[in-house]
Predict the structure.
Amino acid sequence: MTIRIYVPRDSSALSMGADEVATKIVVEAARRAISVDVVRNGSRGMFWLEPLVEVVTDKGRVSYGPVTPSDVASLFDSDFLNGGQHALCHGLTDELHWLKNQERLTFARVGITDPVSLDDYLAHDGYRGLQRALSLAPAAIVQEVAESGLRGRGGAAFPTGIKWKTVFDCQADQKYIVCNADEGDSGTYSDRMIMEGDPFVLIEGMTIAGLAVGATRGYIYLRSEYPDALAILNEAIASAYAQQYLGDNILGSGHRFHLEVRRAAGAYICGEETSLLESLEGKRGQVRFKPPLPAIEGLFGKPTVVNNVVSLATVPIILDKGAEFYKNFGMGRSRGTLPFQLAGNIKQGGLVEKAFGLTLRQLLYDYGGGSASGRPIKAVQVGGPLGAYLPESQFDTPLDYEKFSEIWAVLGHGGVVAFDDTVDMAKMARYAFEFCAVESCGKCTPCRIGSTRGVEVLDKIMGGSDCEKNITLVRDLSDTLLNGSLCALGGMTPYPVLSAINHFPEDFGIRRPGAMEEEQAELEKVDISY
Amino acid sequence: MHIAAYKAVPGGLLPLLHAIQDDVGYIPEDSYASIGKALNLSVAEVHGVVSFYHHFRTQPPGKHILHICRAESCQAMGSEHLEIHAKSKLGIDYHETSLNGDITLEPIYCLGNCALSPAVMLDEKVYGRVSLTRLDELIAVAEVAE
């Protein structure tokens, strides 16, 4: 009997030697004359256990990890092919604490199926959303997405249904669906996991978007740092074409949708939608003025839906199970789930898809297990390099778009980067300006010049010169960036900078507001006790 | 040769530049004129696009390219030590190639391997949880490999 073994091909798993482990398993099985079928799946999102090897038993999938090539022989000796005990064995994968309480809607198949197998996709409820969409009028598809409450998962959280409706309402000879797969935010990798672990769900989502708004051509703008995702997407697109899920006559319905992947070229700013469109047109990725909105005049001047990978990959389940089903997850105006990504100085880094509403503390400690270094977590940056730094006192904030806005922070793309108490927040604030300077498209002055001036002033502060006065200068400069920049790069760089100053003033050589009064009060208390 | 393939592709300049760089390792500046002619662009426009994107280079790189991630997540796990170590070991700064022509050192801002920080990428392969020893091993392997 052939035993099925899963070894991920996700690039994070590969970064820990998954290819070498897969090869070793095949060699070792051949040496022992055992028949095995090694399937290369996506990642389950428990990266501290990668490479995570899973064996299919009659009780379910049993997991072992992190496996190195030198562990392979001992795994065979321990009869891991029948779920045998071993120091690296974690038991049934589905029963693991990490996975058991997640609400995996968008990530339902990631880590479970063979990402490039269309049959496997179909066997796991794939293309049911498209089947339903084909039975609906385009306006009804748009309505379903609008009712689900889905908001842009790329970070801006704009209601997807409204964007689609705008494009739907436009009359044009050509419309486009553009997938923003330029996932440049540090601490985020959920787009990559979808593209490497379940590419068909993205293809299906884009096809549904095309049907809904009347677009016949789609582009996936993929960052050049993801060569593995490129290969997997292209393989999946070729299968979808071969089986008529893409092309001139989708599943015999007479509908047309063509899709191709375009490689970005390492510019962070191209994650901004108008700059992305410029880049797709073969130009410098400079931000456009808005209006006109891309939904009205987008790619090549045509009405264009620009959505993030996770937004588009969530569309199939909404169409399959209905808007009501999706809307029932979440809190307030944040409906559905968000795939949170734990990163940085964290013991257990990985992907947690949960309904909005859990707290940062639950994420950091219940899932993350605290810092990797074992030291206290001092600060957490949520939402990428343009997101605010949160101190421990804010860890109980529910993960919800509006709750985060209230504390002048952003959820963004759901990336959570932890720092232990050795971090120097002045250095991180300086880095935020430096990053803005490196990545600025140069179109508007606050971002282009302000970022460099910011680095210079931070250098003075870090050198201990006139800290109070220079902080005032940084605040003033930040005000200009916040209110005078054309897009979010310049407009949000003040988030990490000011949050670092406000929550960790000691790192900038200044006193916490009110600190002097507190000290005075302490002294007075001492006096009284005498 | 590549020019003909992308001449009629809408927004074909980026795919064309990728094809050239994948093939010869960089975008030779003397190709701007023929690219411009085919795509109806000026040499200045082609130069503008090439110079805008961090990924494109106008000089041949070393035999291998080592990218070190500088983004926040990797910083939280000590990537700064990797940067200092690589620079001193190779005797070069970012955007430079070691004297023997083996390794070009480049910064990169996120490889999407943030749960396994710090990360580096050698050519097209990403490595996670990279220690100084591991970095030395990677450099040593790159120096012998062709």
